[in-house]
């Protein structure tokens, strides 16, 4: 393992982050478990950063990939592509967007990059509204709108970005208000902001902020924002890279918790739909998707093998009601974690919905971030046989828990017990 780590450091960038003091090589997986190079088994509560959405080595997906690879792997979007058309039909129907068009990419970064291109071209504006504590990718344009300093290595950008309050419920100047007051204050802030700037192209927002530590506003905030945006012709982009496909349990799309004023103009997706294959994409109303006045293609977006995998994965997800499972088992898991946290002064908050749960850590007796404790819990959980993630934004440290949506009750109980021991050990 040390030899592989040395080789990694010799040829890959220094800024390519690795978890754990002794980095882990995962060699194979099955269901909700993975194995490392030493043969040790772990319960996987992070799924390759919310990407293994249904299960490791899901038979329907491996079969679809194998059969498609035996026919043709790739031809590009310059040719008709049956798996791409079939998947686009399913996604358009599930999107909630009228007259929807779907464009496939290879990642969430590229999906958000495309959404920004569409919005700025459609609106003839390079001003974008984004949320504080947000993360939207690692490309030049998406780094420029990311409201999280830890993941924004450059202040240079082709866009003018203005940041809006509301993505974090329990911190910031409005945290002391009740939900209705919080929403009203954020809307007032948005209205005031629009009075000081040129007309923006769009607001881009994650319904639940992923890298920021699984934070979210009260239900209905983005619906209230949408009412204001509509008055100005500003588009709403829902970044569903982490929240889509039933992950939150209550809804198929995260934006549906804010759907009172209608669906977004643009939805971006990636991660879980491919169950580990490189699939991302953009859904938009036809008039927005078709606004570009130059040719475009995607060499690898929509390639047959990834489309076959995603279609099989989506069919399995819907047929087995994994959204419902996320709601039921996720509800149990969050209850268990809240019970554990009640006796630990270093746990500031347990939050989330479905199988998207954040545990925010703070120095006992304060609201100050405790990154040391977060790192210690990560290590202790691994020692106990559990893999989790971490995140956070301005002065926050959070553990990120997002197992495959097929998680069983027994596995949820097992993971909660391991995490409880890890939290106690770190405090």
Can you describe what's shown?
- The chain is α/β, with parallel strands linked by helices.
- It has helices at residues 2-11, 47-50, 59-71, 82-95, 108-123, 140-145, 179-194, 221-232, 286-289, 304-319, 322-341, 371-383, 409-426; strands spanning 26-30, 33-36, 41-44, 100-105, 127-131, 160-164, 202-205, 235-239, 266-269, 280-285, 347-353, 356-361, 386-387, 389-391, 397-401.
- Helix 3 (59-71) packs antiparallel against helix 10 and helix 7 (179-194) runs parallel beside helix 8 (221-232).
In short:
By secondary structure, the chain is of the alpha/beta class. Helices cover 38% and strands 17% of the residues.
Fold topology:
Elements (H helix, E strand, L loop, with lengths): L1 H10 L14 E5 L2 E4 L4 E4 L2 H4 L8 H13 L10 H14 L4 E6 L2 H16 L3 E5 L8 H6 L14 E5 L14 H16 L7 E4 L15 H12 L2 E5 L26 E4 L10 E6 H4 L14 H16 L2 H20 L5 E7 L2 E6 L9 H13 L2 E2 L1 E3 L5 E5 L7 H18 L1
Parallel strand pairs: 3-13, 5-6, 5-7, 7-8, 8-9
Antiparallel strand pairs: 1-2, 2-3, 4-10, 9-10, 11-12, 12-15, 14-15
